UniProtKB/TrEMBL annotation:
Pathway: Amino-acid biosynthesis; L-arginine biosynthesis; N(2)-acetyl-L-ornithine from L-glutamate: step 4/4
Keyword terms of this UniProt record: Amino-acid biosynthesis, Aminotransferase, Arginine biosynthesis, Cytoplasm, Pyridoxal phosphate, Transferase
Gene, per the UniProt record: argD
Binding site for pyridoxal 5'-phosphate: 135-136, 168, 253-256, 312
Note: May also have succinyldiaminopimelate aminotransferase activity, thus carrying out the corresponding step in lysine biosynthesis.
Keyword Transferase: yes
Protein name as it appears in the record: Acetylornithine aminotransferase
Species of origin: Granulibacter bethesdensis (strain ATCC BAA-1260 / CGDNIH1)
Length: 437
């Protein structure tokens, strides 16, 4: 655990406590280690906070670094590598499609996209799909579709969206506003107008935020970046009823929590009768190949007439071949049951560790294979310690550490991850001077 880190002139210093003197011990010297690493400055823009670690290849839930060390990947490229690494079905489909035709544009029919849309609509509330290249782009499409539907059905004055505190919807100018987090907005000029934030779970606040200009509501059924906050199923049902009552359109952002991640194909399915009018998907949809999708009821989709919306790469044969290969696996009988079982295995194990080390892990959150550990120490310090012990994870809001392994993770992988997490908790408890209580 690095307690202090600073960098300058291409050198990163980290101070780490190796051994703490026990109370009343003869030797009161603190044993510390100062490490000095050279970090490479690169021609990439400095917008990411990268670990000094690069990977060469992977298999399943395992990644091998360029220095040969193996890591258990419970971050899955931020809940994206749904089939893990080097899945033969996915890599085979991509290679085969790339060798035939990769991109033709949407000036022509794309059979792979038609097939993908048929499969996605057959397995969701939706009746039509639009394909794009990222999550933020899918959410932009979702909001445009809601506004256009209101406009085409006699309500051009309805264009505002109600969104929720703690949400994350992406980094385009409009999605920064939908996200509404000042941390992401600073320095990027005036916020794009049209997004009103209310606290999740507070139906009275939502009702109070509705104005004659409100077009719809946008919510993540499980907030991912915000700290793995599971939205109550009853709240989703209340939003559905409120939308029906006021003629609003309901949009779900299932970019992170959808495509099997919670153990159902779509996270909102757990709520039963709270289907949206439109939904965005991305991240896991093509197993790491860049893709996004907007899925909607026909009543909305029919207003996206030729020329109203588009994107050059969207739904090209290569991306659709990748997404179809992911669906082959995720829709196979028993697959989502296995996701639920692995999720349960992890949750049970994590809750046991949190019981033993309540100062390190204060709470276990999430659903299926989208889990969060509310940390006592800084989540980034825990993330770094886990990485040093061979387990990759992702930090999230509210000091939560996110575990989102590939959906193909095995029982043995989960056991291995749990032992690393326990071992790390032991070290933290010792370094913090606390003990298992
Ligand atoms: C990651 C994410 C986005 C943004 O997706 P990008 O592909 O990074 O644009 C939007 N919404 C949610 C819920 C996400 O997790």
């Amino acid at each position: 655990m690095a307690l202090l880190a600073c960098e300058g002139f291409g050198i990163r210093y980290a101070v780490r406590i190796i051994d703490l003197p026990t109370q009343g011990a003869e030797n009161r010297n603190l044993k510390i280690e100062i490490s000095r690493t050279l970090f490479v400055t690169s021609a990439l823009m400095p917008n990411y906070n990268r670990a000094d670690l690069a990977f060469e290849r992977g298999e399943g839930a395992w990644l091998t670094a360029v220095n040969g060390r193996r890591y258990l990947d419970f971050g899955a490229g931020i809940a994206t590598s749904s089939l893990g690494h080097a899945h033969p079905g996915l890599t085979g489909a991509i290679a085969a499609q790339a060798a035939k035709v990769m991109h033709v544009s949407n000036l022509y029919r794309v059979p792979e996209a038609e097939r993908l849309a048929e499969r996605l609509t057959a397995h969701s509330f939706a009746e039509a799909a639009f394909f794009c290249n990222s999550g933020a782009e899918a959410n932009e499409g979702l909001v445009k579709l809601i506004r256009r539907t209101q406009s085409e059905t006699g309500h051009p004055e309805r264009w505002r969206m109600i969104c929720f505190q703690g949400a994350f919807h992406g980094r385009t100018l409009a999605m920064l506003s939908a996200t509404g987090n000042p941390k992401y907005q600073a320095g990027f000029g005036p916020a794009v107008d049209g997004f009103d934030q209310v606290p999740p779970g507070d139906i009275a606040a939502v009702r109070a935020a509705i104005t004659p200009e409100t077009a719809g509501i946008l919510i993540e059924p499980v907030q991912g970046e915000g700290g793995i906050r599971v939205i109550a199923l009853d709240f989703l049902r209340q939003l559905r009823a409120l939308c029906d009552e006021h003629g609003l359109l309901l949009g779900y952002d299932e970019i992170q929590c959808g495509m099997g991640r919670t153990g159902r194909l779509w996270a909102h399915e757990w709520a039963g009768d709270a289907a949206p009018d439109v939904m965005s998907s991305a991240k896991g949809i093509a197993g790491g190949f860049p893709m996004g999708a907007v899925l909607a009821r026909h009543a909305l989709a029919r207003h996206l007439t030729p020329g109203t919306h588009g994107t050059t790469y969207g739904g090209n044969p290569l991306a659709c071949a990748a997404a179809n290969a992911v669906l082959d696996v995720v829709l196979a009988p028993g697959f989502l049951d296995a996701v639920q079982q692995r999720g349960q295995q992890l949750r049970t194990g994590l809750e046991a560790i949190a019981r033993d080390y309540p100062h390190i892990f204060k709470e276990v959150r999430g659903k299926g294979l989208l889990l969060g550990l509310l940390c006592g120490p800084a989540n980034t310090a825990v993330q770094e310690a886990l990485r040093e012990n061979g387990l990759l994870s992702v930090a999230a809001g509210e000091n939560v550490l996110r575990l989102a392994p590939p959906l193909v993770v095995t029982e043995a992988d989960c056991d291995a991850a749990l032992s690393i997490i326990r071992e790390t908790a032991v070290t933290f408890a010792r370094e913090m001077g606390g003990s298992a209580s």
